[in-house]
Amino acid sequence: MTSLRKRSDVLADIAERVALWNEFRTDDFQDRVVRAVNSAREHWRDERGELPARGADPMFDALMGMADEADASPIAVRDTCARGLRAAEDARATR
Question: Domain count of the chain?
């Protein structure tokens, strides 16, 4: 598994990107979000290739929440991105 610092950086980067895409939505917005999240989640795989269970890692939950909400309203996506940024910040503060 990638270091906590690297995962918090990845989460913050994805949250910022999704928030920007959300401001200027295109027809492929949902696909872009899902592809970005699926690529980023690889940083959470452990040595056996397993991803954390939902509820086990707040940063992973925030990351996956962005894909879950990609087809929601712009306000819901904005709020989900804010949760991702907060989770990344909280992880940095606890290390």
Answer: 1
Locate tokens 């598994």: which residue?
Answer: 1
What's the whole-model pTM score?
Answer: 0.93
> What six digits make up the tokens of 5?
């610092």
Q: Which residue has the tokens 């795989």?
A: 45
Report the CATH number at residue 48. 1.20.120
Range of the domain at 13: 4-94
pLDDT at 2: 84
**pLDDT digit string (tens) for 14-32?**
999 999 999 999 999 999 9
Chain center to CA of 4: 14
Tokens linked to 49: 């290739």
**Could you tell me which of 26, 28, 2 has the C-alpha nearest to residue 63?**
2
